[in-house]
Design brief:
two-stranded antiparallel sheet; 6 helices; 278 residues; alpha+beta; 3 domains; Immunoglobulin-like
Length: 278
């Protein structure tokens, strides 16, 4: 198993943020017990989230503190008033009438309540902050996943194009290929090239310089065999060198603009390029 590739899939981030499905979570937990690298990656991501949370912590508004302190001040004042009234109980020790103050626990309870309020405010602020951070992290994570998918798709397209170009160059440099340059007719500045395999008789077309076609039209290649045009294929969507039909024998090649899907005979009024073999 490629551990690094698995870590880079993003499943760890989904798991820590609570976005992984049950199957992904179960699989990750099992693998983390088998592979220390995965367990370390989970711990490191959790630590980074915690570090970011405390580094960007948002303090509660100063008005909260002012309001809380004012409330506590009032409570402390009431506590002082309460202490001035000290309950007296008679002592039973040897009949001596001693007076012993009984300390009320109400003051302590008020301090505990005040501390609880402070903790509640701090906890609420931290929860709100962590919720916002988790929400932002989820949005950013989904955006990164989308961007990563787009990059992978684009890379696949570029790789396909590069492979097509490489194969085309290999074919064009093959000594068995007969190159037929077709130039524009009637002073048209157009150009196309046929590469005809002298061994297999397969025909390849490179549209060097041809105008864009209307949606209902397509370019069609013709091979001139014994003075008659023979359909050699329709130029469709392809990158670089386009493979068309197999032509055993030809003296020349030409391209016309025909209706979409091709025509059984060429429209000479729409002749664009022409070139002789040899």
């Amino acid at each position: 198993m490629d551990i690094q590739a698995y870590i880079e899939t993003g499943v760890i981030e989904s798991y820590v943020l609570g976005m992984a499905n049950p199957h992904e979570a179960a699989e990750l937990e099992q693998l983390s017990r088998q592979y220390p690298e995965i367990k370390q990656a989970i711990d490191e991501f959790e630590a980074s989230l915690e570090k970011q949370a405390f580094a960007n912590a948002v303090k509660p508004p100063s008005s909260v503190k002012d309001s809380l302190m004012l409330t506590l001040k009032d409570e402390f004042a009431k506590e002082e008033d309460t202490r001035k009234v000290v309950p007296i109980v008679p002592s039973l020790d040897k009949g001596i009438n001693n007076q012993t103050p009984v300390r009320s626990i109400a003051g302590r309870l008020k301090y505990v309540a005040a501390a609880s309020v402070i903790l509640l405010v701090a906890s609420a602020g931290l929860n709100i902050y962590l919720y916002k951070e988790a929400k932002d992290a989820r949005v950013n994570y989904l955006a990164l996943l989308k961007e990563n998918s787009t990059i992978i798709a684009d890379r696949g397209v570029y790789q396909t194009r590069m492979l097509d170009m490489y194969n085309s160059m290999q074919l064009m440099s093959d000594p068995a290929m007969v190159k037929v340059a077709m130039s524009g007719v009637k002073d048209k500045e157009e150009l196309a090239t046929v590469f005809w395999d002298s061994k297999t008789k397969d025909v390849y077309l490179l549209a060097n310089k041809l105008p864009e076609t209307p949606d209902n039209k397509q370019y069609q290649l013709w091979a001139m065999v014994d003075g008659k045009p023979v359909d050699a294929g329709i130029l469709g969507d392809c990158n670089g060198l386009c493979k068309l039909k197999n032509i055993p024998n030809a003296q020349a090649f030409a391209i016309t603009l025909e209706k979409k899907g091709g025509s059984p005979s060429p429209d000479l009024a729409q002749l664009h390029v022409f070139g002789k073999v040899g």
